[in-house]
Specification:
The chain has 233 residues and is mostly beta strands. Helix content is 0%, strand content 64%. It contains no helices and twelve strands. The protein has a twelve-stranded antiparallel beta barrel. The two termini are 25 Å apart.
Amino acid sequence: MRKIFNNAFASFLIVTMTMGTAQAGGETASPESSGSNLTYNVGFTTAYWYRGAFQNDSAISFGADYENGSFYLGTWWVDVGASSLHDPSMEIDLYTGYNFDLLGVPSYLGVTGYYYTDEFDQDYEEVNFGMDFGLASFDSVIYGDYKAGNGNASSDYGHFKINVPLTDSLGYSWQTFTGGSIHYASHELDYSMPALGGDLGIVIGHNNDGGAGATQNSDQDTTYATLSIGYSF
């Protein structure tokens, strides 16, 4: 996935509805479990948006998650374009973390790494932290490191997201992203429901004029919508 540094590409990890344990990129801690569990997931989305910035057109993803008690470990792969019909570029995410109670509030602390094939982008590594208060929760990148290349200096970045469940199926989120000269925010409504034997998701969002994505000018101050379908097994 393209990120926000150098050419103002924004960081992204598609939020699929297929994660059976910890969600991709460490966002939102999974429920604690007394046993171990291994799940797999596949998904499709009509557009590739994350953290308020456009990344790519429709994408197919797949991943695996392992949970043992409060510990989680996973990987998530997504196509981010292709240099040719038979040579797709892939984003490969690796993440791990631990769920715990902090002053009686369910919380998590984890690390995430984003790596790419075909020299699509440089690597990103971050430390994630979040808490769930019931009426609202938050996810954050308390430290992010962009591994710049081609003579460019590395950069630090941060992210903060507040999630508010409105109903069992509908949620609202407000999020910010800060890194280098990039500072922007976005709002999103997300709806989920069982469909076609899997989980169907709809996201409608709007970013401000700092939310530059893969096509920069056309992605700023923009209202966007995505439709996704996911399966876990």
